[in-house]
Amino acid sequence: MREGSGIELSGRQWEIVDIVKKHAPITGEQIAEQLGLSRPTIRSDLALLVMLGYIDAKPKVGYFLGKKASNENHLMSKLTDIKVRDVQAMPVIVRESANVNDAVITMFIENVGSLIVGDEEGNLVGIISRKDLLKVTLGNPGASTMPVSLVMTRQPNIITVSPDDSILEAGRRLIHHQVDSLPVVAYTKSSGKEKLEIVGRVSKTTLIKALIGKTGGMEI
């Protein structure tokens, strides 16, 4: 449930904000009718939303979207406009021929949470996380010489983004799939087969830096 100035709004209150956003100016009676409720039932909801700045009221006119809701909508629009290509970092790649020891060293040197595994042409074939390396090395003295191909996650289980996706979409995928970073790929065709060319990397840190840089001057 989202929060408003430390006060958690109910589902009905967020529904009222959405109705006002779509139909402003709109009267309290019309809002109540769309909700299938009476005007007195939502009186306290309307008062709270006005107090928090999510909606504004004008006598004899009706309700409008408030400054707080407008700012949130503006922020969402701004994040949609920023593309992954604008913020992506250089990919940290290991080849299929690398072994687990190579992967561990690369991960620590580059200070990243995951490695992208690419073929000789730079196409995506897998991804290795810290958890993958930890699982294979614990209690396994021969793990260091194992090829990364035995450890990595393969398609179709790799979550990716394209350079044209918004950073908002990238953030949603990071959160939904509970991963720290995503390969940025461009779709190409070679010998009639679709390939995923590795062109970048986007992580939670990348997005946080982008948000601070792009929205730091906004009032939210």
Any overview of this molecule?
The chain has about 220 residues and is α+β, with helices and mostly antiparallel strands. Helix content is about 40%, strand content about 20%. It contains nine helices and nine strands. The protein has helices at about 10-25, 30-35, 45-50, 65-80, 85, 100-110, 130-135, 165-175, 205-215, and strands at about 5, 5-10, 55-60, 60-65, 95, 115-120, 125-130, 180-190, 195-205. It has a three-stranded mixed β-sheet. A two-stranded antiparallel sheet has the order 1-2. The chain is elongated and about 75 Å long. The relative contact order is 0.13. Residues about 1-5 and about 215-220 have low confidence and may be disordered.
Task: Summarize the entry for a quick read.
The protein is of the alpha+beta class.
Number of extended strands = 9
**Structural class of the helix and strand makeup?**
alpha+beta
Largest sheet: 3 strands, mixed
Low-confidence regions: 1-5, 215-220
Measured by DSSP, the beta-strand proportion falls in 15-25%
Helix content: 40-55%
Order of helices and strands: EEHHHEEHHEHEEHHEEH
Helix run count: 9
Order the strands across the largest sheet as they lie in space: 5-6-7
Radius of gyration: 24 Å
Apparent shape: elongated
How far apart lie the N and C ends?
A: 18 Å
Average pLDDT, all residues: 86
SSE layout and pairings?
Layout: E1 3-4, E2 7-8, H1 11-23, H2 28-35, H3 43-52, E3 55-58, E4 62-65, H4 67-81, H5 84-87, E5 93-95, H6 100-110, E6 114-118, E7 124-129, H7 130-137, H8 167-176, E8 181-190, E9 193-203, H9 204-215
Parallel strand pairs: 5-6
Antiparallel strand pairs: 1-2, 3-4, 6-7, 8-9
